[in-house]
Amino acid sequence: DAAGGAELLSRAVNETFRDLLELSGLDAVESIGFGCDLDGAGLRDRLYFRSTEDRGLMASFRAPDGVEIRAHELVPADCGMFAGGVYNLVGTYDWMTGYLSKLDPREWESMATMIRDLEQRLGVSLRDDLLASLGPEYAMYAAFPGQAVIPDAGLLIQVRDASRVKEILGAITEEYAGDMRIGKLESDGHLLR
Length: 193
Description:
By secondary structure, the protein is α+β, with helices and mostly antiparallel strands. Helices cover 39% and strands 27% of the residues. The strands form 3 sheets. The chain has a 3-stranded antiparallel sheet, with no helix packed on it. A hairpin with an 8-residue loop joins strand 4 (134-143) and strand 5 (152-159). Helix 2 crosses helix 3 (105-122).
């Protein structure tokens, strides 16, 4: 009957939602705080999470001790929007692979095969070579130079091992040379490729 089907569906959705909360670590969040300041530099907002334990996706947002946030020094002074913080890319990769493998094991195996094939062609590990060489600091910004209608946008990611990242990007460029164009851009005295 319809009522029994609705109850079964509701139970399945609740179990899936509960699993997602546990896998993400959101079930361990005790409190969330938001602050907003207006000063000479503009509007600044901050988002804080307090959690009983670091696990799942929430652990990816935990700042390692001694990390000094400085990406704001690299963005244009007149940018209209800026967001930045710290993010554990390896932890996020581990969470995503665990979540996807639990959500749909067959689909995950297909994706994992594609990742392994790519890693084999490039001679690198996405997790241990590329992602481990990046972060934890990141920033995103949008700027409206002059009377522009479409903003300039940027994504900045801290590089821990520049020679390794350059080597990996060289392998990617070589593998996909016919499929994509890679240009160079100078911004505030920094050469970007």
